[in-house]
Structure formats: structure tokens, C-alpha cells
Amino acid sequence: MLRIYSPGATGALCNTDSDLTTLPADAVWIDMISPTPEEEAFVERALGLQVPTRDEMVEIEPSSRLYREDDAIYVTANVLVSLENQEMMSTAVSFVLTKTHLVTVRYASPRVFEVFKANLERSKMLTADPCNALMQLLDAIVDRLADVLEHVGGNMDNISGSTFRRARLERQNRISTVALQALLGRIGHAQDVVSKARDSALTLARVIGYLIFALPKGSNGGREHLKSLSRDVAGLTDHANYLGNNVTFLLDAVLGLINLEQANIAKIFSVAALVFLPPTLIAGVYGMNFDYLPELKWHYGYIFALGSMLASAVLPYVFFRMKGWL
Question: How far are the Cα atoms of 1, 67, 285 from residue 104, in angstroms, in the given order?
């Protein structure tokens, strides 16, 4: 699918009905979404450049992601994509900048592109300058990345509150092992998002750094904008690292609490065995088949045996409670 944007009186005009024969003369931005071979051939023929293939976009070496070919600048960054099941994935997006056009190639639909498209159609953000369109698009991607990290930070605050709720004095605030295991799932999701966000920030930092030196010397305004974006991305990278450290801490804390809960369960069984051991011993003594037992014919022998068993069970429990072992 091709979206061809041209500047209009009040905002950008989006054309999605290209006949793949002629490119509009005033086209500035060509957004290629999962392009077909025919669409790739049309753009290459119209602009005289090579469109990056999907295999080339996923390569991780910088020489395959940041390079210049003739008069075109090729950069590729990883952008976050929200899925319907609230999971997050990372997709490679290539940007091809020429003196007259901006081409983006993607095989997913990041939300930032839809938001940016809506903003373009309502304002004059898109001018006849493709470099400005690229600056605005990168700015929107960085803003979206910041929103994702802020959302993850809020979720981690909730996880932290749930994790340490059992530290209250009231025993009813203890979290069950099942609830702690659910927290592990939430922590794993947060780690997945933070990891992808950090990867996206790193690729954006490389793209912006390369563009600062690759843009023509006359693009001073663009370079200043890129330097501002570079500082923003550096701050987001630091924040992602901070969140990653928090995730590690919360993971260790939850695993420690799970171990404590399991140890408490084992302690309960150990205490139960210890409490019932003396009564079992007394019952065993009075259950032996001897003809002569001291309390065998005693009127209160039965009550004495029951009382002894009860006292032998209660006294150890009270002693352990006084020592703070339970």
C-alpha cells in the first residue's frame, strides 16, 4: 500500500489511489506499507533510487542501516508497535531522504504513523521540504517512545506497591503465592516492553546522530532540531536503563517473597508435626497392651491422659510464639 502526501492549503493531502504509473508532481512523502513488488518498482522508477528490502531492513550492522547512496540518505530505526492483545513488538522502519522526497518503508502499522497522519491533515506541518517532514516524523516517534516509557513506569509503580504490600503489619495483607506468580507475569511484560523501548531508543540515537552529519550544510535548522532530538533520546535511554534496573529489583523481590511464602508453608507443616508429636507419644504410651499401667484403674486416668496430650501440644506452641519463632 502506498500513501502519497502532498502539501495542501490547510494541511497535507493523502493519496492512496495511485495507479502506479505517475507520481504526483508535488509529492513530498511516500509512505510504503508492506509494499508489493509492483509498488517498489514504481517508486524506484519514479525517484531513481533503490527501496530497501525487508531482509535489508532487519540487518543489525550499522553499515546496512545507515548509509548514503548517490544523493539519497538511508537510515533504519526500530519503532514500537502496540498489538491488539496489549503486547508490544518492535518493527524496522526505513527512511530514505532525497532533496525532493521522503520515503518510508514499513511492514507494520505503528500507532505513531496514524497519529502523525491525522496531525498532518489538520495542520501545515508538512511543507515542500522533505527534510522537515522527516524531522517532524522523528519527533513524533520520540514522543511516542516517551509515552510508552511513562506508561511502563506507572505500571511498575503499581507492581511495586502490590509486591511490598505484605510488608504491612496486618497479616491479612499478605499476598498469596498465586498472586505473586501473577506479579511475575506483569514484571515479565514490563521487562519485554522496556527491552524493546531501549532497543528503539538506541537505534533512534544512531539514526539521529548519522543524520546530523549526513544532512546538507544548508540544513542548519534541521541539524539543530536533530541535536535537540538527540538529547531527548539520550534522556529516554537513561530512563529506560533506570526502568530496567527497577525491573530487575522487582523480579528479585518477588522471587524472594515467593521463596518466603514457600518457606512459611514448609514451616507450618514442621510446626504441626512438632505440636502433634508429644500427644502422639502420650497416646502411644497409654495405648500399649500391658496388663499393669499406673493409671489403668484410676478414675481420672482418661481425663489425665487427654489433658497431658493437650498440654503437650499447647505448651510448645506458646513457647515458640513467645520466642518469636512463629
Answer: 12, 15, 88
Q: Are residues 62 and 144 in the same domain?
A: yes
Q: What is the pTM of this model?
A: 0.78
Residues 114 and 222 in one domain: yes
Closest of 242, 184, 212, 177 to residue 66, by C-alpha:
212
Domain membership of residue 296 as a residue range: 263-323
What residues contact residue 222 under an 8 Å CB cut-off, 6+ apart? 131, 132, 135, 211, 215
**Which of 249, 261, 256 has its CA nearest to residue 178?**
261
Instruction: Check pLDDT > 70 for residue 221.
Output: no
Give the per-residue pLDDT at 170.
43
Residues 6+ apart with CB under 8 A from 307: none
Grid cell in block for residue 15: 493519496
Name residue 89's beta-bridge partners.
81
Task: Tell me how long the chain is.
Answer: 326
